[in-house]
Amino acid sequence: MSGSSQVVTCKAAICWGLGGPVTVEEIEVDPPKATEVRVKMLTASICHTDILSIHGFPNVNYPKALGHEGVGVVESVGDQVTTLKEGDMVIPTYMGECQTCENCVSGKTNLCLTYPVRLTGLLPDNTSRMSIRGQRLYHVLSCATWSEYMVSNVNYILKVDPTIDPVHASFISCGFSTGFGAAWKEAKVESGSSVAVLGLGAVGLGAVSGAKSMGATKIIGIDKNEKKREKGEAFGMTHFINPGDSAKSVSELVKELSGGLGVDYSFECTGIAPLLTESLEATKVGTGKTITIGLGIEHVVSIGVLSILFGRTLKGSVFGGLKPISDLSTVANKCQKKEFPFQELFTHEVPLEDINQAFELLKDPNCVKVIIKIRP
Predict the structure, then answer these.
(1) Which ranges of the sequence are coiled-coil (predicted)?
(2) What is the mean pLDDT of residues 33-43?
(3) φ and ψ at 195, to 5 degrees?
(4) Which domain holds residue 210?
(5) Which of 32, 89, 325, 376 could form a disulfide linkage to 36, CB 3.0–4.6 angstroms apart?
C-alpha cells in the first residue's frame, strides 16, 4: 500500500437525518482496503441530487457524508490496485464499467452489472470507510466528495490529466456530463436535427452542448429564468423560450418554433413532473424522442398516454448514458483542452466550512454552479 496506512481525521459535511441541517464536523476515514483508493479531495461542486440526498434520495440511511461531484488526488491505494498510484488526479464516479458483463459488451447501455450504481450509500462490500464518533457514515451514492478525504472502490474512479482545471473537472463528474451524454449517447442526435432542452441548469447546458457537437441546427432552450438565455447561447443554443412570457404551454411554444410539428429530440432536465408530458408533446408525432434526465422529489409521475401512443419514444437515462471509462474519459479530454465554455458555469465559490452558504447561493437567479473549495 502506498501513502498512509493510518486512519485520517478530517472535516466533512454531514447530514444527520432526513431533511436535517448540514454541519461540517471532524470524521475518521480508514485506509483503503485491497481494491480501494483513498482520495484527498481538492474541489467539489453541488448537483441537484445532493439536495435530494438530504431529503432521502436514494436512501434514508443517516448520518450521511454528502457530495458526489468533485476531483481529488490519490493519497493511498490498496495492495491489489494496479491502475492508480499515489499522486494521480482522479474523478470519483457513481457507477463503474467492467467492460465484460452482458450490459457492458452489449453497447446498448452504460449500466454495468458488475459495478452498478450504489443506491445503499455503501461501498461494494456493503461497508464504509468513513465514521463519526464511532458511528458509520453513509455516502450519497458511491463516494462523499464534500470531505477532505474519502475512500472509493478503484472501479468507481477515473484518472484524468493532471493539467486539467480542478474546478472544470468537478463540473464533468456528474451534471454537465449527464446532459452532454444524453445528447451524444442516449439520443444520438443526428446532424441537421432540431432539439428542445427543458431547464438550463448545468445538466441542460450539457445537453445543449452535446446537441451542438452532434450537429443539431436548431437548439431551443426553455427556462423561466431570463438570465439563462445568455448561458444557453454560450453553449450553442439557437432559440430561447421563457414560459413565463406566454399563457401557452411549453409544447405549443416549441412547435411554434419548429414549423408546427415539434422537434426531433427533447431533453427533460428539470425533474418537474408535468413537464415530462410537455417534453414528449414538444416532439414530432411518430418519430420524436424524449430523454428524461431530470430528477425531482416526485418519484411517480403521470404521463399523457396519447403522447406515447402516437409513436413518440420516452427513454430514461442515468449519467446520460456515459460509460465512466470509455466515455467520460473523452469528455475529460475535451475539458482538459478547454473545449467547453465552463466559465459560464462557474458562478460562485465557498470554502467547505461555509457549505450552508452554498445552499443559499443556489437560490440566486445568477447562480449556475457553486464550487466548494475543499482545500485553500
Answers:
(1) none
(2) 97
(3) -140, 145
(4) 177-318
(5) 32
Confidence (pLDDT) at 1: 47
Q: How confident is the model at residue 373 (pLDDT cuts 50, 70, 90)?
A: very high
- Helix, strand and coil percent figures for the chain, each rounded to 5: 25, 25, 50
What type of residue sits at position 179? G
Q: How far apart are CA 359 and CA 122, in angstroms?
A: 25
Residues listed for the chain: 376
Q: What is the sign, positive or negative, of the torsion defined by CA atoms of 354, 358, 359, 363?
A: positive
| Helices assigned H by DSSP within the chain | 48-54, 102-106, 166-172, 175-181, 202-213, 228-235, 250-256, 274-281, 305-309, 328-336, 355-361
Confidence of residue 369 (pLDDT cuts 50, 70, 90): very high
Residue 371 has pLDDT above 50, yes or no: yes
Q: Please state the φ and ψ torsions of residue 211, each to the nearest 5 degrees.
A: -65, -40
Single out the residue of 241, 169, 179, 244 nearest to residue 209, CA to CA.
Answer: 179
Q: Does residue 323 fall inside a structural domain?
A: no
C-alpha cell at 142: 458511491
For residues 216 and 189, is the Cβ–Cβ distance under 8 A?
A: yes
As a whole number of angstroms, the distance between CA 189 and CA 179 comes to 12
Query: Global pTM?
Result: 0.95
pLDDT band at residue 298 using 50, 70 and 90 as cut-offs: low
Q: Do 194 and 152 fall within a single domain?
A: no
Same domain, 156 and 183: no
pLDDT of residue 273: 87
Give per-residue pLDDT as tens, 63-94: 999 999 999 999 999 999 999 999 999 999 99
Name the residue type at position 304: G
Residue 214 belongs to a domain: yes
